TrEMBL record:
Residue ranges of the TM segments: 21-39, 45-63, 84-106, 112-130, 142-168, 174-193, 292-309, 321-340, 360-382, 388-407, 419-438, 444-464
Location in or out of the cell: Cell membrane
Protein family according to the UniProt entry: Belongs to the polysaccharide synthase family.
Protein name, per record: Lipopolysaccharide biosynthesis protein
Primary residence: membrane
InterPro entries xrefs: Poly_Biosynth_Transport
Pfam families the UniProt entry points to: Polysacc_synt_3
CDD domains hit by this protein: MATE_tuaB_like (cd13127)
Keywords, comma-separated and alphabetical: Cell membrane, Membrane, Transmembrane, Transmembrane helix
C-alpha cells in the first residue's frame, strides 16, 4: 500500500472513528446526568467493583490472539479458525469460573452484594470471544466505518436500556443491564459487517505462534488494567463505596470524551503502523502528526474541564455530587498525559515489542499500587492526586523508549506537544479566574466560560503554534465542507 493510500485510509478512519467516539462521549455523559439523579454514589461504586472483575476476565478471553492476527502481515483461514475456537473455549471457561467462584470473589473484594451482579454479567466473556476474529478481520481491512457503527450502536443500546430501567424504578439492575446490552449489540454488528464465519478445524501447532506473541500482550493488558483500575477494590475496602462512586463518576465524565477518542485513534493507527513497521521515517512522521493532532484537542479539553468542573458537575449531576468536581480537576490533567502513553503503546505493538510492554506494565503497576497504598490513608482526594503525580513522572520515561525505537529526537516531540499544552494551560487558568468571580447559574457560567476558553485557546495557538495549527484547521474545515 502506497504512502498516499495509507494517509487517505488513516484520515478517513480517523474521521469515522473520532466522530463516532465523540457521539458516544456526548450520549454517555448525558446518560450519566440522568442516572445520577436516580442512583447514589454508593450504587455507582458497587457496579464499578463488578466491572473490575469482569474487566480482568475479558482481557484474558483471547490471550492477545486478536492483536496477533492484526500484527501479522499474512493471515490464513486456518489461523482465524484456530483463534476463534480457542477464544470461545476460554470465554466459556471464564463464564463458568465467574459463576462458580462469585462468592469467593465477593469475599476478596470485601462486599457480598456483588455476588448477584457477577452472576448476571458472567456471559459477557462469551460475547467477547465471539467478536474477536470478526473484529480483527475488519481491522485488517481498515474498515473503521463499520467498527465505528458497531460501537456506537452498542453504546446507544446500552444507554437506552439503562435509562428505561431506571425510569421504571430499577437501581443496580439498570447498571447491570447497561454493562450487558452494549457488548451484545456491538458483537452482533461486527459479526454482521465482517461476513466472517468459522469452520470446524483446529490445529494447536498453528495457534501456538499466535499465542506466543499474544501471551505477552495479554499479560501486559492484565497488568495495565490492574494499574489503572486497582484503586476500585482498594478504595472500596479502605474507604467506602461512596468514595469509590465519586471517583468512578469523575473518571467517567473525564475519560468518556477524552479516552474514547484516544482509543479509537489508537485503533486506527495500530493496523496502519503495523503495515509500515519497517519504515522508521514514515513511523516518525505518523507519530508526530498523531501526537500533535491529539494534543491540540486533548489539552484544551483537559484544562477546560479543570476550569469549569464545579458548574459542569452542578449542571450535569445535580446536588450531592460536589466531590466529583474536586476529583475532576485532577483527573483531567492526568488524562492528558495518559494520551501520550496511549500512542506510545501503538509503536510498541506495531514493532512487536510485546515483552517490553509486559515489563513496563509490571513496573508501572507496581508503582501505582505503592502510590495507592500510601495515599489511601489520606482520603479519596489524595488518591487521585497521587495518581496524577505518578503519571507525570512516568510519561517521560515511557516516551524515551518509544522514541528510541523509531529514532525520533525527544526535543522535537517536546516542541510539538509543548505548544498546545502551554496554550491550553494559559486558557484554563484565565477561565478558572473568570469562573470564580461569576455568581450566575451554572448554565450561564458555562455559556460564558466555554466560548471564552475557545477564543483564548485559538489565540494562544495562533501565537505559539501557527505553523502546525493553521494547516490542521484548514484540513479539518476542508473535510467538513466535503
Amino acid at each position: 500500500m502506497t504512502q498516499q493510500n495509507l494517509r487517505s485510509k488513516a484520515m478517513k478512519g480517523a474521521s469515522f472513528t473520532v466522530a463516532g467516539r465523540l457521539l458516544r462521549a456526548f450520549q454517555g455523559v448525558a446518560v450519566l446526568g440522568i442516572l445520577s439523579r436516580y442512583l447514589s454514589p454508593a450504587e455507582f461504586g458497587l457496579i464499578s467493583m463488578v466491572a473490575f472483575v469482569s474487566g480482568i476476565a475479558q482481557i484474558l478471553t483471547d490471550f492477545g490472539t486478536r492483536i496477533a492476527l492484526v500484527q501479522r502481515g499474512n493471515v490464513t483461514k486456518l489461523e482465524e479458525d484456530c483463534v476463534f475456537w480457542w477464544n470461545l473455549g476460554i470465554g466459556a471457561v471464564m463464564t463458568m469460573a465467574t459463576m462458580m467462584f462469585s462468592p469467593w470473589i465477593a469475599q476478596v473484594m470485601g462486599d457480598s452484594r456483588i455476588v448477584g451482579p457477577l452472576l448476571w454479567v458472567a456471559p459477557i466473556f462469551v460475547f467477547g470471544a465471539l467478536q474477536g476474529v470478526p473484529q480483527s478481520v475488519l481491522e485488517r481491512r481498515l474498515a473503521f466505518g463499520h467498527l465505528t457503527i458497531s460501537e456506537v450502536a452498542g453504546a446507544v443500546s446500552s444507554s437506552a436500556v439503562a435509562v428505561a430501567m431506571v425510569l421504571l424504578g430499577f437501581k443496580i439492575e439498570a447498571l447491570i443491564a447497561q454493562m450487558m446490552a452494549g457488548p451484545i449489540v456491538t458483537m452482533l454488528c461486527i459479526m454482521w459487517f465482517s461476513r466472517w464465519r468459522p469452520r470446524l478445524q483446529f490445529s494447536y501447532s498453528v495457534l501456538r505462534p499466535l499465542l506466543s506473541y499474544g501471551s505477552y500482550v495479554t499479560a501486559a493488558g492484565v497488568v495495565q488494567f490492574l494499574s489503572s483500575q486497582i484503586d476500585r477494590p482498594i478504595v472500596g475496602n479502605r474507604l467506602s463505596t461512596t468514595d469509590l462512586g465519586y471517583s468512578r463518576m469523575a473518571d467517567q465524565i473525564v475519560f468518556t470524551p477524552l479516552r474514547i477518542t484516544v482509543q479509537m485513534v489508537r485503533k486506527v493507527m495500530f493496523p496502519i503502523m503495523a503495515t509500515i513497521q519497517e519504515d522508521d521515517a514514515r513511523m516518525r512522521r505518523g507519530y508526530l502528526t498523531m501526537q500533535h493532532g491529539l494534543m491540540v484537542v486533548m489539552a484544551p479539553v483537559a484544562f477546560g474541564l479543570w476550569a469549569v468542573a464545579h458548574p459542569a458537575v452542578r449542571l450535569l449531576l445535580g446536588p450531592g455530587w460536589d466531590m466529583v468536581a474536586v476529583l475532576m480537576g485532577l483527573t483531567t490533567i492526568r488524562s492528558m498525559f495518559g494520551t501520550v502513553n496511549d500512542l506510545n503503546s501503538v509503536i510498541f505493538s506495531a514493532k512487536g515489542w510485546a515483552k517490553f510492554q509486559f515489563k513496563w506494565s509490571i513496573f508501572s503497576a507496581s508503582m501505582t499500587i505503592c502510590t495507592l497504598l500510601v495515599t489511601v490513608n489520606y482520603g479519596i482526594v489524595a488518591v487521585v492526586a497521587g495518581k496524577l503525580v505518578l503519571t507525570i513522572l512516568l510519561t517521560p520515561i515511557n516516551c524515551s523508549f518509544a522514541l528510541r525505537l523509531i529514532g525520533q529526537p525527544p526535543m522535537e516531540v517536546v516542541k510539538v506537544l509543548g505548544r498546545p499544552v502551554l496554550s491550553a494551560a494559559a486558557m484554563g487558568l484565565a477561565v478558572a479566574v473568570v469562573q470564580a468571580h461569576l455568581t450566575i447559574s451554572p448554565l450561564l457560567q458555562l455559556a460564558v466560560c466555554i466560548p471564552l476558553g475557545v477564543a483564548l485557546y485559538v489565540a494562544g495557538q495562533l501565537l505559539l503554534d501557527r505553523a502546525r495549527f493553521v494547516p490542521l484547521l484548514r484540513q479539518i474545515v476542508t473535510r467538513g465542507r466535503r
